[in-house]
Amino acid sequence: MQPRLLITLVQDENNPENLKQVNVSVRVGQAVDVVAQAGKPKTITGFQTHTTPVLLAYGERAELANDEYISLTPYMEGLVILRKNVDYDAPSADSKKK
């Protein structure tokens, strides 16, 4: 038996052969069964936003909170390798004021 943890890793810019741990925002909530549902339905309900690393309880699932990174695996559990999203535009202070 092992704990259900979530640790996110990205490729190190200085040494591309190594991975480094990165803290990202994830939503953690109760898992919802989405088998055979059309489109891209929500996979969790009643979520809270945490920063990785996170310990997941029984029946919980995690998903990335924003589009800054893209997961290279469909399962957000254990060690997850992320890739920087080149199309991501960080929200600026000017857009928040409007």
From TrEMBL:
Residues 35-88 form the 26S proteasome non-ATPase regulatory subunit RPN1 C-terminal domain. Pfam families: RPN1_C. GO terms for biological process: proteasome-mediated ubiquitin-dependent protein catabolic process. InterPro entries: RPN1_C (IPR041433). The keyword Repeat applies. Keywords: Proteasome, Repeat. One of its GO terms (cellular component) is nucleus. The keyword Cell membrane does not apply. This is 26S proteasome non-ATPase regulatory subunit 2. It comes from Toxocara canis. The lineage of its organism: Eukaryota, Metazoa, Ecdysozoa, Nematoda, Chromadorea.
